[in-house]
Amino acid sequence: MIIGVDEVGRGSWAGPVCVAAVLWPDGVMLDGLNDSKQVPAKKRGPLAQQIREHAIGIGIGWVAAPLVDKIGVAKALQTAAQCAVAELGPQTDARIVVDGRDRLLGDWPAEYIIKADTTIPAVMAASIIAKVARDAYMQQLDLVFGDYQFGKHVGYGTKLHRQMIAQFGPCEHHRLSYAPLRIYAQ
After folding, report:
1. Model's pTM, two decimal places?
2. How far, in whole angstroms, is CA 52 from its chain's centroid?
3. How many CA atoms, within 13 angstroms, populate the side-chain half-sphere of residue 108?
4. What pLDDT digit, counting tens, does each position of 44-95 carry?
5. CA distances (Å), 165 to each of 13, 30, 53, 172, 184, in order?
6. Burial class (CB in 10 A: 0-12, 13-18, 19+), 157
7. Using CB atoms within 10 A of its CB, is residue 83 exposed (0-12), middle (13-18) or buried (19+)?
């Protein structure tokens, strides 16, 4: 078994960072499974459902924007990753593979592989689960903070998002430590 770990929301201007850990049977590959950025948005939800049917376990860790501002995005991702893997419980015989080179799991024994989300099914699955979970969260935020249209840009620095911030200022879900929003931190 392999535990795949991937994050989403690192560069977003609003909303939480999210890390998924998926305990996956080695050798299982689903049709269409890939890095979430390579899967069309309309196919991610159904694929996430298939992943849930095949996964042995799924853990998701979250760190909200105010804490990202307080501790920094690197520490926030570490915190979310450790929570996600801990949700799976003790898996002493599982190999842990994390997408990228950032030591998200600190001293935990793990392999860090750049582009693992395009080559290792467990990490691909984690990529999809994290993206679908965070996008769903941002859709819910859109219901409460409709002026910002979070459902369209899911917190990233698009032209539309910039226009909404210019018009309404930031809300409590914006990351004021990020360069484009620091002017609002005063």
Report:
1. 0.95
2. 16
3. 26
4. 999 999 999 999 999 999 999 999 999 999 999 999 999 999 999 887 789 9
5. 10, 40, 39, 12, 10
6. middle
7. middle
